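FORM 12-B: Structure-to-Sequence Request
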């Protein structure tokens, strides 16, 4: 999405205020760094992602393990700066709409406070329809607008539900599936974004 916006001629900024699981990536290949590189957002990484943790666990747990207190004011400042600096901004959450980035600070409350349109990434597998409907209910309960869904295949394994998930979501909700992402197995495929960008219909 960030690359599609950039290719449309917009100045794109990104934010990943809290990132955990850095140990799972090579140096320089964390989510925030990849976002910044693709968007050509040259602001300091400390501005794009002020809290970065090693363990692949929930942000508040990772912070506790490393003896760090996540300050909600810092998280809000990160979003505020990104939104002010670009023509379009992509903000990546962590773990789901109700997951707290800091104690008492769920992603949903940030989305509502900044009036952010939400894009829900759906793991395209059995059970995803229920998960998606629960996420949409949680968003609407906080008056958050969901602008679209993205179906993402997370495994190469066969799953019969994939042939019906999109259709069923279309019947049960008025939120459109904007595009689908296939399962990408090799590092080369994961780095080759050009083909994926052709699938993207940028939400407005």
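FORM 12-B RESPONSE
SEQUENCE OUT:
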């Amino acid at each position: 999405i960030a690359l599609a916006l950039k290719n449309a001629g917009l100045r794109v900024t990104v934010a990943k205020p809290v990132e955990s699981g850095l140990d799972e990536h090579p140096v320089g290949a964390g989510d925030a760094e990849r976002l910044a590189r693709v968007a050509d957002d040259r602001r300091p990484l400390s501005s794009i992602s002020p809290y970065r943790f090693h363990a692949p666990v929930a942000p508040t747990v990772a912070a506790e393990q490393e003896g760090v207190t996540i300050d909600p004011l810092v998280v809000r400042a990160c979003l505020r700066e990104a939104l002010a600096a670009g023509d379009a901004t992509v903000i990546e959450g962590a773990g789901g709409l109700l997951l707290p980035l800091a104690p008492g600070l769920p992603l949903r409350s940030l989305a509502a406070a900044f009036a952010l349109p939400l894009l829900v990434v759906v793991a395209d597998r059995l059970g995803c329809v229920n998960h998606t409907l629960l996420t949409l209910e949680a968003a609407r309960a906080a008056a958050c607008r969901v602008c679209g869904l993205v179906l993402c295949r997370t495994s190469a394994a066969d799953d019969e539900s994939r042939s019906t998930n999109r259709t069923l979501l279309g019947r049960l909700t008025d939120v459109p599936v904007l595009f689908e992402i296939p399962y990408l197995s090799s590092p080369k495929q994961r780095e080759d974004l050009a083909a994926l960008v052709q699938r993207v219909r940028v939400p407005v």
